[in-house]
Design a protein that fits this description.
By secondary structure, the protein is an all-alpha fold. Helices cover 70% and strands 1% of the residues. It is built from 13 helices and 2 strands. Strands 1-2 form a two-stranded antiparallel sheet. The two termini are 21 Å apart. 39% of the residues are buried.
């Protein structure tokens, strides 16, 4: 890794993990967790801008793929998480230890098991008064959030991972760059995973699962970023994943955080399939000089 990447990682991990340590030591109430996670997500972008603009005095827009002109790959970025979640549900459906459900009361029960206790009564009341079945509301709300608030929050990470790091590491080859970024990205999640994020039942094992998930999903993020020419597309991909990921968990009773969802066992299969599809697309549908993964 070059010196710029090293400086960037020292700043990003130092600030992010420092914030996590402060949050943990102060024993902050659960109601502040959302603010903490949002702040945590913004650190990679903040550090990328500091390194690129202040320390190295270099431009940001082009190197960070900050292109706001939409194209078909923005739509692909938005639809891909939905496709992945549906496949994830189908895979999980074959597991003998789980029971699939679309009943409102069961889904509400599963959803409320994932949220802080202080929100339980409010969430239950809101969900019971929804005009649509909870499954469809969760799906539509997640998709909408994926191109709005979630995408904006995810941009805080993507400017760092698919902006600065991809730009600096792409000379090594985009696939290798993706793997390096994925491993770093997964390790960066370690403090919040240990605090119960994504893997509340298995926080220690969850750290390694998150590293695996990020490593396998990173080539997809690279593919979308480079095909679209914009880190905004990867932010949409990231935000939509965050928006709809719960569907692959709350529609099942039984199992645990290692065997359910996109960050669990079914998700590994989905990501491996997506990598195969991307590589096949590159092989069959793209001229050699235009291939991302050569």
């Amino acid at each position: 890794m070059n010196r710029k990447i090293i400086i960037y990682l020292i700043l990003t991990f130092g600030i992010s993990w420092g914030l996590a340590l402060i949050y943990y030591l102060l024993e902050m109430p659960a109601m502040y967790k959302g603010v903490f996670l949002l702040t945590y997500m913004c650190v990679p972008a903040f550090c990328a801008i500091v390194v690129q603009k202040i320390i190295y005095r270099q431009p940001i827009l082009k190197p960070f793929y900050l292109n706001i002109k939409p194209n078909i790959w923005f739509l692909v970025a938005w639809i891909t998480p939905l496709t992945g979640i549906l496949i994830c549900i189908l895979i999980t459906f074959t597991f003998p230890w789980v029971v699939f459900t679309m009943q409102n009361n069961e889904i509400i029960k599963n959803i409320t098991s994932l949220i802080p206790a202080y929100k339980l009564d409010i969430v239950r009341e809101q969900m019971n008064n929804l005009p649509l079945p909870v499954f469809w509301y969760t799906l539509l709300a997640g998709m909408f959030a994926g191109i709005t608030l979630n995408a904006l929050a995810a941009l805080g990470e993507e400017i760092g991972w698919r902006g600065l790091m991809l730009s600096e590491l792409s000379p090594k080859g985009n696939f290798l760059a993706s793997i390096i970024i994925g491993v770093v990205w997964g390790i960066w999640h370690a403090p919040i995973v240990l605090m119960g994020h994504n893997y509340p039942e298995h926080p220690v094992i969850g750290v390694f699962c998150m590293i695996l998930f990020c490593t396998l999903s990173s080539p997809l993020f690279t593919f979308i970023t480079l095909r679209s020419g914009s880190v905004l597309a990867s932010a949409i991909l990231h935000g939509t994943i965050n928006g709809v990921a719960a569907l692959a968990v709350v529609t099942f009773s039984g199992g645990n955080d290692l065997t359910l969802g996109l960050t669990g066992l079914p998700g590994i299969g989905v990501l491996l399939a997506l990598i195969a599809v991307m590589l096949d697309y590159e092989r069959l549908g793209t001229h050699e000089d235009e291939r991302i993964y050569k």
